[in-house]
Amino acid sequence: MIDKLTGTLQFNQQALSLRDQRQQVLANNIANADTPNFKARDFDFASELRKATAQTGPQQTVLARTAPGHIGGSGSSSASVDNLQYRIPAQSRLDGNTVDMDAERSKFLDNSVRYQAELTFVNSRIKGLRSAMQPE
After folding, report:
1. Are the beta carbons of 110 and 103 closer than 8 angstroms?
2. Burial class (CB in 10 A: 0-12, 13-18, 19+), 71
3. Which segments show compositional bias classed as Polar residues (predicted)?
């Protein structure tokens, strides 16, 4: 039964993980808006989510044992972005920086709202599952 619950919420976990990673990339772009020769980066959320959900199950992370007394372990890793792409600027700057603050703020806000919406959806789903499991 736990496997079914985990499978049900795995898509949401991967989506939230990718949203978090995108938020970090966009925040990095905003933080380096005045850094000469900084190149803005981003990734296509939809294609990365498709890749993350196309995997048959969670990727296993194997921990290295550096001493004989260590306990071996493994855990599942969440979705991760493999290929960040450089953003093509709409207007070039003399210092070589490609960060467009208006576009970055817009993408940052959009990603924040979508992250919050996903959290709200997951919370309502969990509440529904909890109420279905409660005896009446």
Report:
1. no
2. exposed
3. 53-63
Burial 72-110 (b: 16+ CB within 10 A, else e): eeeeeeebebeeeeebeeeeeeeeebbbbeebbeebbee
Amino acid letter for position 62: V
Whole-model pTM? 0.75
H/E run at residue 15 = helix 2-31
The pLDDT tens digits for 14-35 are: 999 999 999 999 999 999 999 9
Give me the residue label for tokens 């993350």. Answer: 52
Structural tokens at position 30: 């905003």
The first and second tokens of residue 79, run together, are 């979705």
Q: Which two tokens stand for residue 120?
A: 């709200």
